[in-house]
Amino acid sequence: MATSKPDQEFYRVEMESGSQRDNGSNIGCCGYILYALSIIMIGLTLPFSLCLCMKVVQEYERAVIFRLGRLLSGGAKGPGLFFIIPCMDQYTKVDMRTVSFDVPPQEVLTKDSVTVAVDAVVYYRVQNATMSITNVEDSNRSTRLLSATTLRNVLGTKNLAEILSERESISHLMQTSLDEATDPWGVKVERVEVKDVRLPVQLQRAMAAEAEATREARAKVIAAEGEQKASRALKEAADVLSESPAALQLRYLQTLNTISAEKNSTIIFPLPIDLLQSFVKKEQKTAF
Prior knowledge:
Order of helices and strands: HHHEEEEEEEHHHHEHHH
Helix content: 40-55%
Strand order of the largest sheet: 3-2-5
CATH topology of the largest domain: Tetrahydropterin Synthase, Chain A
Strand content: 15-25%
Structural class: alpha+beta
Oligomer: single chain
Number of strands: 8
Largest sheet: 3 strands, antiparallel
């Protein structure tokens, strides 16, 4: 469930006021006594005490320090060298690098009542180390669980055709929803990608049969269009040849050349049309 803007502002105000209030000065009487004893012990055990007081965090890490359970002012420390007071300070290292994880395949019932298994990959990073420690118990685990539920919620509003064809828009919608929900945790969701959509075997067969039938129908239409264009071309060629008897004779000679090139044992020599027409005219005269 996404957090509203007023709630996000409330978290930020609480963190800022907490940082200003818990600056290490409001630790109480016992805290002051423990602080003084710790300083004395550090001074008496120098330089060996420096091994416990000096800590180092890497460039991609930050250290969130708590003094007697209160968040130390100044925010997270690092990168580099920082100091703590033994017996009073506790610190937690936070990795600020981008982390990726796979969302396990989720069985989702789509809007058109089709059950599919969809998995995704999420890229996120911690942008506020203090909020990731104080506002949520385990930001990594919480982000993983929220990603799985968000994937189911988003895909439940889509039909199968939209899931298969609009992966980019679905990924963007998930990224926006997750980023808004994890903002109070100090987590920035950078990218979400839908990896695979697994369909039931029966549905795969039905879709394959439908696609095959569509391709066959398209092939028949293309063949019919080709026959239509060929018949029109033949009609135009016949009209041209009928207007020029010499062209028809040249076509006869070309046909003979083609037949002779195929090494056939029998060659049929067509008679000129003019000769045949003269015979037809004579037969018509004798009949009358």
